[in-house]
């Protein structure tokens, strides 16, 4: 049975709450079916703090300093950009096990405009010391990353998805490395993260000799390991669903330069802007060049003119 | 309480010497809250010492107005949690800077950016409730800090959660960097604001040790308590009192001698 991505993540949180009464879940009045189950079955480990994300992060810091493992949840922008200083000081400087869950990656909230589009949330978190930043890809890693949040120390940001998406991983998959590997690398590699890894699955079938690496952890990146895997690859394409500044296009470019990996390089993301357009996620992807066709065109042109 | 009053005055002198040695520091705000800290640490309310400061059931203290850190440092040194040498190296490559750092023994949490402490304190208090521990959490806020919206987010939730093990003390010296709080962004009617947020409110003279002690023991069964401590910024040195210039400043030999003379005379 296919599971909604958001519920898959909260199923992981549910299991952690169930096995450890020291684990708490806070929400800033944002809901999900999986979250309702936690509230229903473990009311003492659940708290809705109201629409006050900054205080939710700070409260979580105080709780975690007293030994609690805390998950906090709301829409991406509100638990990251709005609460940036609280995350930086109260979680990262203190290096506490608080797991920030944000829903609304990229154009998820496609009809809600720049206030809700997650176009800079990931990058804002990628600059903070001690913080690990994850993008989920399918229901398997949604569940497993939620559990990993409980097991691994330190603050983390999980950029989760909602809706049903195809499985890319299996029950044996583990997620400590930070990215998926190919057994044998071809001359072209696409590195993508989150929902864009799903989009890139359709692309790889239409281009010859290509692999897709799913960078489910965008910070920290095991640079040495990634560089080792990319050695000898001729063409590297990076795809992300956010504006370019501070994202994985820039990050991967730095890894390549530092490790003397000389290749043809194509970054694909949204140019620096706020997107005042409204429609479905697919429609906005078309408008801003992130749909399958637009990406294919860019890649084919890139490979022709390299 | 006389002993505690005397100790406060000794700490004022120590603060003066330490800041002179460091070159500059937040002396005005340290002098306005040092009497409160002395009561907290030396009247048995916090009960924190070198042996128990890591105990799970210790009372917690947070200096949310982190710029007054020097007032906590001199006490931590007196209690033996940090060394005299640490004070001598303030702002000069040691473990002490202008704001509290959790790596300093006896400091619970980083502070310095205003508006965080009450939320952290409510996390400590909620954790105590969840774990059935009896400790209390005390947090000192600046009154200017109460311009920060997050203070009120935390105030609202703390009252909603009935955190009766939480005591906030507001150092109501009525001065921000650029003047009187009421001219900049009026806080009054200040006690009424806290009352309307569901808090037990006690108002005291923040330089009267007995009043402070009594207020800290006037907690409520159902509500968090806020002690509004009416204070004087720069208290103890006439030319620093009520002068926003002394929020942060340098102490040269001449100022040092003048201030020291006043402090010794009133000891």
Can you lay out the helices and strands and say which pair or pack?
The complex is a heterodimer of chains A (306) and B (267).
Chain A: H1 5-19, E1 23-27, H2 33-41, E2 46-48, H3 53-65, E3 69-75, H4 76-79, H5 84-93, E4 98-103, H6 121-126, E5 132-135, H7 139-151, E6 156-160, E7 188-192, H8 195-204, E8 210-214, E9 217-219, H9 223-230, E10 235-243, H10 248-258, E11 264-270, H11 281-287, H12 292-305
Helix pairs in contact in A: 1-2, 1-7, 3-5, 8-12
Chain B: H1 2-22, E1 24-25, H2 27-42, E2 60-63, H3 69-78, H4 84-88, H5 117-130, E3 137-142, H6 149-160, E4 166-172, E5 175-176, E6 179-180, H7 181-185, H8 190-196, E7 200-205, H9 209-216, E8 225-230, E9 249-250, H10 253-265
Parallel strand pairs in B: 2-3, 3-4, 4-8, 7-8
Antiparallel strand pairs in B: 1-9, 5-6
Tell me, briefly, the overall form of chain A. Answer: globular
> For the largest beta sheet of chain B, what order do the strands appear in spatially?
2-3-4-8-7
Tally of DSSP β-strands of chain A: 11
Mean pLDDT of chain B: 97
H/E order of the elements of chain B? HEHEHHHEHEEEHHEHEEH
Summarize the amount of helix of chain A as a percent range. Answer: 25-40%
Query: Distance N terminus to C terminus of chain B?
Result: 14 Å
Residues in helix, % of chain B = 40-55%
Brief characterization of the structure:
By secondary structure, chain A is of the alpha/beta class. Chain A has twelve helices and eleven strands. The longest helix of chain A has 15 residues.
Structure description:
The complex is a heterodimer of chains A (306) and B (267). Chain A is α/β, with parallel strands linked by helices. Chain A has two domains: 5-160, 3-Layer(aba) Sandwich (Rossmann fold), CATH 3.40.50; 188-305, Rossmann fold. Helix content of chain A is 39%, strand content 19%. In chain A, strand 1 (23-27), helix 2 (33-41) and strand 2 form a beta-alpha-beta unit. In chain A, helix 8 packs across helix 12. Chain A is globular. The mean pLDDT of chain A is 97. The mean pLDDT of chain B is 97. The longest helix of chain B has 21 residues, at 2-22. Chain B has ten helices and nine strands. Chain B has a five-stranded parallel beta sheet with strand order 2-3-4-8-7, sandwiched between helices. In chain B, strands 1-9 form a two-stranded antiparallel ribbon. Chain B is globular and about 50 Å long. With 267 residues, chain B is an alpha/beta fold. Chain B has one domain: 3-Layer(aba) Sandwich (Rossmann fold).
